Every structure is written in C-alpha cells, then in structure tokens.
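INFO  loader      accepted 1 record
INFO  loader      residues=142
INFO  predictor   begin
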Amino acid sequence: MNAMQNTVIERLLKRFDAYADLAALIDADQLKQRIDLPRHKSLTDHLWCVVGARESYTKAIDQGVWSGFACSMQSFEVEDFQAHLQNSALAASDTINAITDWTPERASLLATFAEHEVMHEGQIIRHMYALEQSLPESWVWA
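INFO  predictor   done
INFO  writer      dumping tokens
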C-alpha cells in the first residue's frame, strides 16, 4: 500500500467517526424532514445510501470488483441508522485493513468509496443548515 492509499484510508475512517457523531445527535423528526426543493433528499435517504454504499464498497474491495449497490436496511429509525452506520464502518475498516493485495481496481474502488462518503457529507451539511440544525464538530467541512 502506498502513502496516498494510507492517507485516503485514514481520512475515510475519520468520516466514519463523523457519521457516528451525527447519528448520536439526530432524532426521529430530523430523519424525515424535507426541504421543499426539487430532487431534495431527506436525512433518511442520505444515510440509507451511505450505509448501502459502505456495504457495497466493502464487498467490492474485498472481491476486487464492483458487483452493484445493495443496502441491508429494512427499518429506518434512529437506532437502526446508528447500528447500521457503526456496523458498516467496522466491516469496511476490517476489510480494508485485511487487504494485502492492493490492485489498481481495489485502489480505484477505495477512492470512489471515499468520494461517496464526502459527497453525502456535503449534501447533509446543506440539508442540516437549511433546516437550521447543527452538526458535530467532527464535520470539518461544516
């Protein structure tokens, strides 16, 4: 693994922690709040996608090839998101740390995974600010 991959992994793990901080602060009403704008997503929509991407990219990095998006979440309460965000972060971290053969495909999947986390982070920041909600200090882009 090269220095850039180490940096991407380090930053990705910090994003996992930031999402856990957010999950610890949100309530059921915040999950469902929407902004009256075209194509706007609720916090539920964003967090479901984050969990699904974590599960999908973890599988892809492990196998060395993208095999599609899937999310295991069946219920969408605060506790469900807290548990799934934690479990998906642990699974991703364990898988990433276990990889010894960082092929170009795996490195590309890792980079795209990190981009996805940050992309949703930006969208969630905008969402929370529009609803005049606060974010944890770990959300460095906020």
